[in-house]
Amino acid sequence: MLLSKGRYLMLFVCVQMVVMALMYREGYRKRVVYFLGVFRKGGTPAAVAQGNLTRPGDVYANLSLIVKPSMREEDLPFCPEKSPLISGPFRVTFPPMLTMAEVEQKNPFVRAGGRYKPPDCESTHRTAIIIPHRNREHHLKYLLYFLHPFLQRQQLNYGIYIIHQAGNYTFNRAKLLNVGFKEAMKDEDWGCMFYHDVDLIPEDDRNLYTCDKYPKHASIAMDKFGYKLPYKTYFGGVSALTPEQYMKMNGFPNNYWGWGGEDDDIAIRVALSGMLISRPSVQVGRYKMIKHEHDKGNEENPKRFNMLAKTRRTWKQDGMNTMEYEVLSKEFRPLYTNITVDIGSEKGFHPKT
């Protein structure tokens, strides 16, 4: 009897060992299939199609799957229509004592100027990220920490532009975005422009940073609004337009100095130019805001409501066709292109040169 039980036990152990060996081989096989799959023109790697190899919630997890194949760039296959690296929601927590050097180390395929294109396939999407900026280095560091892997998981050909307002005059977000559009288009024929506040972190990589048929409002659900759209025409935070859509509405207004009003003006321009607003779902378009006080030099604009009432009359005379500015410097930093500009003040534009 004891001998019989011993045989059954031995058989059970042997079966378990065989199962474990097969599981190990299957995991190895999936990795091999993934790397072979990138060579199929436009195909989705089989291993990743069955399930992403991720650590739940880590925005950097899937980047380990990105490898540079031993073939010429012109022979690369097209990236699949849906990136196999996308895995949905991820955690947004802010690592203490983070440095730009650490962000750079975690993104080895990002080139000078904050430029990236997938090393293992040819992307069909070219997206420029335009970020208005002044005295927000702390926020910028964390945005780049999350934004670079977020965009790489979507297999985009992208570039990140920081448009830095020089001087101490009142901040003008919308005019900086106009400058960003014009300067970025000098570098490349971008197919999509994302206008991105520096303090907003996306929380789901299914929120694609590509343009739609109509102007897109991407940050539909921010944590500061309880992950709900505050009102139907809200267009603040993160938005996206093709160059054609942007020029059709004459870009953004130049005369909103200080905080508030320009987003509503932009939404009115969308409607006046015969377009609608496109949005992702509330579940996908989620963003976390980095908490901060109002910046000095970016106080509430007391004229904004009066200006909004005149948008129907002013939008064709205030925008890309009337913008004045001067580029003071352009630097290709490891994680972004920094463009410092003089955009004047409420009293007008008076170049120093």
From TrEMBL:
Plastid recorded as keyword? no
What Pfam families does the database record attribute to this sequence? Glyco_transf_7C, Glyco_transf_7N
Start and end residues of each Galactosyltransferase C-terminal domain: 217-293
Gene Ontology, cellular component aspect: Golgi cisterna membrane; Golgi membrane
Q: What is the recorded membrane topology of this protein?
A: Single-pass type II membrane protein
Biological role: Responsible for the synthesis of complex-type N-linked oligosaccharides in many glycoproteins as well as the carbohydrate moieties of glycolipids.
PANTHER family the UniProt entry points to: BETA-1,4-GALACTOSYLTRANSFERASE
- The name this protein carries in UniProt is Beta-1,4-galactosyltransferase
